[in-house]
Amino acid sequence: MKTEIAANFYNSAGVLEENVPFSERSTMIINRIRGYCEKLIFPNAKVLEIGCGNGRYSFEFEKMGAVAIGIDCAETIVEYARDFAKQINSMSTFITGDALDMPFPDKDFDIVFLVGNNIVEFSYDDIDKLCKQTHRVLKEYGVFCVEMNDTLLHWNGRHLDTSNYSCETGQISANYTIPDKGTYPYRYNFWTVAIAKYIFTRYFSQVDIKQTDEKRFWIECRL
User: Fold this and answer.
1) What is the pLDDT along the chain (223 residues), one digit of tens a residue?
2) What is the DSSP letter of 204?
3) In contact, 67 and 44? CB cutoff 8 Å
4) Cα angle at 216 between 102 and 115, to 5 degrees?
5) Which CATH superfamily is domain 3-222 in?
6) Which residues, in sequence order, are CB contacts of 168 under 8 Å at separation 6+?
7) Could you tell me the sign of the dihedral formed by the alpha carbons of 33, 38, 40, 43, in that order?
């Protein structure tokens, strides 16, 4: 993950009204995985959300009974999450940091979440590093949960512009215009479930994969 590029993009984008925690759209997005999360989260489970953004998932995890902590590289949206937490008297905490170098002690979390297809923000090498970090901070019986789209299924026969695609890295470069703010570089990565499973099985003894719709998957990795 090019942290500076990602942070600059999301700091500039800010939080759209439709994406604020508990909005209709946020609730719809959470509902895709609500059942899986509720089965895993127990009272006072300590959970970490990687790429927490405005905190919409973390606040829901807290409502399910978790002690939620979110980490993100973009200071602006982390500050938004902190302010929102104060407004609703939430105990969730949010920090600005690098998920590839987590500032947490060993065996600190019961569950680590990488949801909302945030895996695309990370390169293959990044996810390898992230798995090492996740393995370190998870407790003995902890779970690493990933919600992701399979890019091949996502495109499903439609034309994919490969002009900015790197065959060597799987990275796609683009420029996105944020209304009234400007145009910013953005990077994302071509992920399939097969690639993800290959990396996850290097660090976790059990990897369970469930397809949730025509393109989305829920993956639970256990030590």
Assistant:
1) 557 778 887 877 777 787 899 999 999 999 999 999 999 999 999 999 999 999 999 999 999 999 999 999 999 999 999 999 999 999 999 999 999 999 999 999 999 999 999 999 999 999 999 999 999 999 999 999 999 999 988 877 666 677 888 989 999 888 888 777 788 888 889 999 999 999 999 999 999 999 999 999 999 999 9
2) -
3) yes
4) 20
5) Vaccinia Virus protein VP39 (3.40.50.150)
6) none
7) positive
